[in-house]
């Protein structure tokens, strides 16, 4: 994974909290990670994750090794993943959150799953790189049908 572009160390007093370049870099990082997930390439996916990464979903908490094991075995694959809303980015010193509505198509255990979810990724900056420490997904509510008024 390439350098985060955020510099070699944290700026003093959280100076990058509202820095558009840092925010844009985090949005791009999520896009790069999405592409890695769709590639189903375990080393490429792992490069975006902190060792302690977990994903929280309706089925509970899955740790990094279990998730990557599903990908390595071929039991879990993704064929599409993209943000469908603007990302909300907040930076707090060496921690950042990125939240967006995303769609993805996954295959697990031979079944296809199409998801529309709100995704929040928590990134930590280590040695000048942003790594994801936690991903939380919540199913998006279906859009209201048009009224017949």
Verbal overview:
- 23% of the residues lie in helices and 45% in strands.
- A hairpin with a 2-residue loop joins strand 4 and strand 5.
- The termini are far apart.
- By secondary structure, the protein is α+β, with helices and mostly antiparallel strands.
- The N terminus is likely disordered.
Indicate the topology:
Blueprint: H1 20-39, H2 42-46, E1 49-57, E2 60-63, H3 64-73, E3 76-83, E4 88-92, E5 95-108, E6 111-126, E7 129-139
Parallel strand pairs: 1-7
Antiparallel strand pairs: 1-2, 3-5, 4-5, 5-6, 6-7
**Sheet/helix structural class:** alpha+beta
Main sheet: strands, sense, barrel: 7 strands, mixed
Shape: globular
Q: H/E element string?
A: HHEEHEEEEE
Tally of separate helices = 3
**Proportion in β-strands:** 35-45%
Question: Gap between N and C termini, in Å?
Answer: 52 Å
Poorly predicted sequence stretches spanning 5 or more consecutive residues: 1-13
Number of strands: 7
Average residue-wise pLDDT: 89
Percent helix, as a range, is: 10-25%
State Rg.
Answer: 16 Å
